[in-house]
Structure formats: C-alpha cells, structure tokens
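Notebook entry, structure prediction.
Reason for the run: the old model in the group folder had no record of what sequence produced it. Starting over properly, with the input documented here first.
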Amino acid sequence: MLNFSEIPAHKNAFIFELDNVLIPQKDYDLQVYYLFANFVEYLETFPPAQDALAFAKKRYEVHGNAQMFKELAQTFGIDEKYDENLTLLFTNAKLPLKLLLYKEVLAFLQELVVNRKQIFILTSENPVQQLNKIKQTEWNGLDRYLKVYFSQEFGIDATKEALNYLMKENQLKKEEVLMIGRKESNRVIAVESGIDYKEIIL
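New structure, fully documented this time:
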C-alpha cells in the first residue's frame, strides 16, 4: 500500500512505472480488443464483436496478451492480414473510455503535489504506446506535475541508463529518490543504482 505519512521526509523525488503501477494495463488492453473486435465485424460481418471480445477477455485473464491474435484467428477464422491492424491499435488506439489511475495511487500523487515533491514516470515499454496511454489517462490535473522518460530511447533493456540520465538531468541525489514499481527487474535496477525501492501492492 502507498501511504504518504510513512514515506521519509527527505524523499523529494518519486519515480513510477506506468503499467500496473499508475494505471491498470488491463484497462487499456481490453479496450483495444473491443475496438479490434468491432473493426473486424464491421469489415467481415463475422465473428460478432461481442463473441470475439468475450473470448479475448476470458483468455486475457489467464494468458494476458501472449498469442492473442493467433488464438482469435484460429478460433474465429480471422484473416492473418488483420494481425497488423491489432498491432497498430495497441500503439495508436483512440480509446472509448479514459484510463483511470488506481484510487490509492491518485490519492498518493495528490499528496506528493501538495507537499511539492517531484514526480517522474520511467517506463520501459514502447514509447509511442506508452505516450498514447498517458494522453488518454484522466490525471485530475496532475499531469502538469509529471515528467516522463522512456527507457527504450536509450536502447533495449536500458532502464538503468535512463534512470541515470533522469537523475543527472534533474540534479537528484540518490538518497532523496524513491522508485515505485512492481517488476522485479525494476527493483534490481534500483538496488544496483543505490536508490530505495518500494513495491506497490494494489
């Protein structure tokens, strides 16, 4: 859990991952499948969008996005040419609904702003896709206080390099930074960089 009162006062900069830390990745992914199912139904008349979406939702709960198009194609006879459309949707989808921050995270971020702390997002996924998510998130005015960095701009698996750049650019000292995430890889990078890490449990 995130409780601002439990954070040491000397922590002045907070670095968050995006997916499943600030927003549920599932909320984005399932809206993409909704758009895809309706796109295919519109062009091909089959399968019914509601059937394809129901299948995608059920499978997603167990397997996530892994091999989703392959399973949809095999189950409903969807042409392989639509694989590219699904990939493009994941990158550029205009969502029907805004993405919402976890309630606990929203309250925590608001506390950070009130107490004049610095807030950063450091995300390791596709920069175009992640920026698309950020733009379609309901930030409740908090977006004015965010600074975003994309690890992939520094190379593949370059979160450590991106973190070092973030620290240097913003003249941050290691002891004043707290990194918040859910991935073991992020914890390792924080530890190796001498930065305190907190795993978020939602």
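Summary: Strands lie at 13-16, 99-100, 118-123, 137-138, 146-150, 177-181, 196-199.
The old model has been moved to the deprecated folder.
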